[in-house]
Model the fold of this input.
Amino acid sequence: MTKIYIENLPLEVENKDLKEKFEAFGEVETAHIITDKETGISRCFGFVEMPSRKAAEEAIAGLRGTEWNEKILVVNESMPKERN
Done:
């Protein structure tokens, strides 16, 4: 499973939209946009998990720097958080 980090998402994008965008490159296990805990409003970043590493790499290469509703996407493989 490869986890992908997406930044600079348009405010109006929902989980299903994110999933559909990445499904153009292969199977998507999960797509989740992070929201503010108090307001429920998108924080404009999220994560997608794809079972195929090859499809994930193609999605990263294919979507990085592309425009979505006037926003330029930042797309990278997600790196684990360092624990203190």
About this structure: The CA atoms of residues 35 and 43 lie 5 Å apart. The domain at 2-77 is CATH 3.30.70.330 (Alpha-Beta Plaits).
